[in-house]
Amino acid sequence: MTTTQGTLTRTLFISGSLGKGHDVLAEACAAALAARGVECEIVDAMRLMGKGAGAAGDWVFRRLLSVDPVYDAFHFSQLRADGRLARLLDKLAVDRMFPHLKVVVDRFQPQLVVSVFATGAGAAARLKGAGYPIASVVAMTDSFAHRFWVHESTDLFLVTSAAAGESVRRYWPEARVEVITAPVRPEFYAAPTRNAARDHLGIPSDATCVLLMSGAWGLGPLAAAAAELASGGVWVLAVAGANAPLERKLRVLAERTPLVIPFGFTDRVPELMPPATWW
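Given the sequence above, the corresponding structure tokens read:
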């Protein structure tokens, strides 16, 4: 594999620990490159901001998501609309990240920096502006880009739909965009068959089954949804993620409702998807 700087041997991924989706994408991409002999490293943008700033960002984002109108207002009026507040927040985040990111880059010396987290795109742009000889790629599985994702020094945008590509070009019409299939971890390519997975979990072969999950944070009324589905005769694989109170609710529910099979934070998703009629 080559870049304009020569043979690709080292790639740095900038992820973000708001939930788990960004990390999983980085891990899947890194696994694909590692199979081709590329050394990869993943850094967390939230940690690069420092303990206080990263924790504050996590807290604010969780609070925004807990009140839908507030998050929607911020998303559409600032992130998508390239609002002044969004630009300021992005700059402040990159300002905090950049000195720590430089330390990583000086040590690891990647030829390629892949941002799977929106703030990482701004940090990579600043690296290029500071003269680092890197290629910069954004890998985005969101259905629609907001302004943080798009910087005119980015060499390539990898998206999972034509619509997402056009959302990038909304901010930069000349952007180089490629549509790809969303990368997944290697375990998904070795997932069990539906019958084998159902046998392992004790689910009848003719049952209707749902995989119910809402990300690593376990947001939303999953326990109530699981109870309602089970009351209708549906088997429910209910995943609480890192939400410990939700996991406890699901386990209590499972004690009185055998059709509910509860999980906390788990890496068994490749095993849990095949049994499901829906997810």
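Residues 24 and 65 are 20 Å apart (CA to CA). Try to locate this feature in the token string yourself.
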